[in-house]
């Protein structure tokens, strides 16, 4: 944002702070895109539609995002709570995995996140370019965070030295995602605990 | 099909055999529905559209299926090779799981099955009624077949007596489905073998 290099405005100056106005516009754009994803889906969504819904000009969107896919990826980053952070590392792998996967379950059980995640999942099936962006920008960093935590556990001797860490990540996240996606059973913390126990039985030395 | 109660027509009788004509109509309807699922998706597909594409009257479709969801479920049953059959039971759980999951991978790697499965996955996210039908009519019978095979393995002492069989099924199918759905890595027979080994380490007594 170019505005952020301007000196602070004094509170007595008339008119809104341009940085706060920018921030409000960004939020309105992301809110509009999130709503349209759920209502009309990615394919039928347009930059014009987002701009109209957000009450901004189309050029305001293009100032920050090159394409609607880029906007929608940011919607999802925001829903997912920002960029992929490293997993907690307390030295107890089972406890750390329970913490993270219970939080994931809580997110999936939030109607807004559920709605947007399902809209994303549907679009990933329809649109290969969008699928690639989602995989590279959202999913891989997320899976890498799991993998790093498992690597540290492997170094600490908590999991087998010859465990395939990519498959190990899928063993933890795949069943939970499957249950959420296909709505076969409720997602609960108890379920997470059973899953972590089973996966660690598979991975221990 | 009411026609099947009629006596066989002799080959000398003029005109097509009505049972064969019915069978051709059914096939044309399922082909049309499969094509439309991929092209316009479930939500925008109509019975009229299926009828026009199949070259039959709409009443011909209603003779066999009450709704477009019912037609589309039959498309998928056909793609999936009919109703859920029991898993093989040779007495060697690992070998049987490898056989079945390798066949699943081969199916996913078939462009036509991939296309229809992705169309289904997208629709399940959009439409809760369709989701329920898919879960109850396709997915649960499929998961039950795995569960029965695991139960027989548990009785044979191949897996732990206190293993949660529902979670065990997801441990086998979830990671593979995750990899297919999110296109994170290729689906190969080697991957299946690693996955089966890991899952059985988790489940063994």
Automatic annotation (TrEMBL), chains A, B:
SUPFAM superfamilies found in the cross-reference section: Homeodomain-like, Tetracyclin repressor-like, C-terminal domain
GO MF annotation terms: DNA-binding transcription factor activity; transcription cis-regulatory region binding
Composition-biased stretches (Basic and acidic residues): 10-23
Occurrences of domain HTH tetR-type (ranges): 23-83
Organism (species): Nocardiopsis aegyptia
Database matches in PANTHER family: HTH-TYPE TRANSCRIPTIONAL REGULATOR RUTR (PTHR30055), TETR-FAMILY TRANSCRIPTIONAL REGULATOR (PTHR30055:SF148)
Keywords: DNA-binding, Transcription, Transcription regulation
Gene3D superfamilies: Homeodomain-like, Tetracycline Repressor, domain 2
Pfam families: TetR_C_11, TetR_N
Superkingdom of the organism of origin: Bacteria
DNA-binding segment(s): 46-65
Start and end residues of each stretch annotated as Disordered: 1-23
Protein name listed in UniProt: AcrR family transcriptional regulator
């Amino acid at each position: 944002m170019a505005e952020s290099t301007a000196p602070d405005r004094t509170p007595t100056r008339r008119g809104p702070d341009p940085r706060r106005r920018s921030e409000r516009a960004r939020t309105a754009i992301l809110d509009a895109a999130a709503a349209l994803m759920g209502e009309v889906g990615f394919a039928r969504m347009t930059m014009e539609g987002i701009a109209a819904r957000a009450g901004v000009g189309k050029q305001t969107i293009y100032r920050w995002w090159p394409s609607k896919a880029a906007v929608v990826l940011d919607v999802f980053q925001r829903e997912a709570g920002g960029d992929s952070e490293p997993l907690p590392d307390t030295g107890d792998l089972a406890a750390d995995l329970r913490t993270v996967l219970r939080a994931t379950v809580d997110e999936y059980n939030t109607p807004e996140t559920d709605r947007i995640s399902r809209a994303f999942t549907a679009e990933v099936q329809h649109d290969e370019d969008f699928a690639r962006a989602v995989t590279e920008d959202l999913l891989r960093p997320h899976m890498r965070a799991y993998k790093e935590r498992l690597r540290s556990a492997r170094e600490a001797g908590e999991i087998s030295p010859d465990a395939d860490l990519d498959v190990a990540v899928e063993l933890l996240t795949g069943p939970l995602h499957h249950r959420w996606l296909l709505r076969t059973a409720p997602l609960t913390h108890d379920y997470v605990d059973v899953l972590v126990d089973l996966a660690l039985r598979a991975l221990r030395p």
